[in-house]
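Fold this complex.
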Amino acid sequence: MSSKNKSIQEKTTELTKLVEWFDSSDFTLEAALDKFKQAEKLASEIEQDLSSLKNEIQIVKQKFDSEN
Amino acid sequence: MEKSQIHPIFSVSDFIAVVNQTFEYAYPTVEIEGEVASFKVNQGKFVFFDIKDQGGSIGCFMTVWQMRVPIEDGMKIIVSATPKLTQWGKFSLTVKSLRPSGEGALKKSFELLKSKLEIEGLFAPERKRQLPRIPQHIAIVSSTQAAGYADFIKILNDRWGGIKIDVAHVQVQGTDAPDQMIRAINYFNQQESLPEVIVIIRGGGSADDLSAFNDEPLVRVIASSRIPTLVGVGHETDESLADLVADVRAATPSNAAQILVPDRTEMIRAIHIQVRSLLPRMLQIINQQKQSINLSLSNVLEIIERFIDEQMHRISSFRNVLTQLNPNTVLARGYALIRGVSKVGAIIEIETNKVIMGAEVKNVIKK
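Structure:
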């Protein structure tokens, strides 16, 4: 697992928690704007991370045309 | 001068050896197409059958391990064999490999193997393993020159990133293809750091091209892979035994990429929608709170109004009582008010509603 991908997962989990907070009993109007700003920031970070991820393709050196 | 010619004299076994050498030189390997007849397996090891057409018939011999696709009498096949004269002078073909020839034979052989493996439970749903939700390390078994491979990589790159992809370049059609794919699958299964999925892909082709994916040993290796497998071979309508035995079956190589990873564009859109939906949610909560404040306010007002009404009502009943108690009201009803002392001869004052009179007390009797 690459560290970048892991952090995308962490960020996604964090975002889900933030969104759930809005429906939870902890919700207060005073904190809502702050939480909303955090969610917006996380969303754009995730977008950036996801867009910049590249796959790493490697052709196996071993030949498979005969028993080695 | 007389021409002398030397005719060598062979022993029988030498002659058989020479003939076999000649065969070997002339036909190191020969491919012959014909129909199977008198097919039988001896001791579960040795396979005997004849290959024939309208004009002739030749006996064939091979071992069961070499027979990678099932055959039966009447099936049209192509054998790859070396001709041989046995020590009893019988001519036969030692078959190295065989494959069904023509659509009918391919289909027949496919059905035979399919029902055999089905009985063994190789296609059972309970054998199927789930693929990781988002794999970080995958292995691909395909030809890097194949169109299907390019499609898969393109869609995979579009949809997701950050994946380590090991590619085993193998032939995906022809007689060598199954063995190459088997070696590649075994290679990945022996790695220290195992890939999370093995993806086996090949684009569309003729039934003959795709027949490599109906090879029994290959199907068994896919079934026994420690690493979960995803197979996407041919077009949507194609069905191969490799498809059926895989943990997850994709309709095409592109579909395999879609199954393997989520679409980041889709994910980014979903995340933004999720965040944007928080704003109306906040407004809704603000409105709810506003409404609840208004409601409590109007409740309070109502309580105050009710209190005032009650007080007003009380005051008005007090007023009634007071009015009733007013002496003038009593006088108005015809009563009179008498002031003075109750003593014979005393002058007292009598007040009625209309007049005030003076009067003398005539007698006083105790009640």
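Chain A has one domain: 3-52.
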